[in-house]
Write a structure and sequence with these properties.
The chain has about 70 residues and is mainly alpha-helical. It is built from three helices and no strands.
């Protein structure tokens, strides 16, 4: 499924003359509402990923350095 989605996205990139990010392609082909939605999802996913890294860094350091050092 992931491979199919990448192939579809690659085909869209090849057929479009302008170079854009995914929200730009969504705005061009699906409308402004989808562009706004993808912008929100992109920002939310980046922020959520950073939050997960911060939370899990403590557990990772405890495993690597031992619980007595932290």
């Amino acid at each position: 499924m992931v491979c199919l989605l990448h192939l579809i996205f690659g085909e869209i990139i090849l057929k479009t003359e302008e170079e854009m990010k995914m929200p730009g392609y969504a705005g061009k082909y699906l409308g402004k509402m989808f562009k706004k939605f993808l912008n929100f999802v992109s920002i939310f996913s980046i922020a959520f990923s950073l939050l997960i890294y911060i939370v899990l860094a403590d557990k990772f350091l405890k495993i690597i350095l031992g619980s007595s050092l932290i």
